[in-house]
């Protein structure tokens, strides 16, 4: 079962399966993972092999254009651009501001 790795997010697959929420895997690039992990603000260790971040934390502009799927009238698969990090509904930063 997929659950969101963001510390303040209570989303998990069974709860959101009818709401269109997608659970994105972490990158294979360690440098990208460091930034994504820091945005999650978890106190415990995140195992990036199994962890997921739900689509509620990404802006619509961070998804790759699925032109091939559109042209072939296939289901659109939402894939986050490789360099993007979550930026919506995140835990408060250390300075008290929400990102």
- The number of distinct helices, counting runs of at least 4 residues, comes to 3
Radius of gyration, in Å, reads: 14 Å
As a percent range, the share of helical residues equals: 10-25%
User: What is the strand content?
Assistant: 5-15%
Distance between the termini: 27 Å
Give your account of this protein's structure:
Keywords: DNA-binding, Metal-binding, Zinc, Zinc-finger. InterPro entries: THAP_domain_protein, THAP_Znf. The protein has 99 residues and is an alpha+beta fold. The protein has one domain. Helix content is 20%, strand content 6%. The chain has helices at 13-16, 30-40, 67-71; strands at residues 23-25, 52-54. It has a two-stranded antiparallel sheet with strand order 1-2. The longest helix has 11 residues, at 30-40. It starts with 12 loop residues before the first helix and ends in a 28-residue tail after the last helix. The model is unreliable at 95-99 (pLDDT under 50).
Summary, kept brief:
Keywords: DNA-binding, Metal-binding, Zinc, Zinc-finger. The protein has helices at 13-16, 30-40, 67-71; strands at 23-25, 52-54.
Keywords, please?
two-stranded antiparallel sheet, 3 helices
SSE inventory with pairings:
Blueprint lengths: L12 H4 L6 E3 L4 H11 L11 E3 L12 H5 L28
Antiparallel strand pairs: 1-2
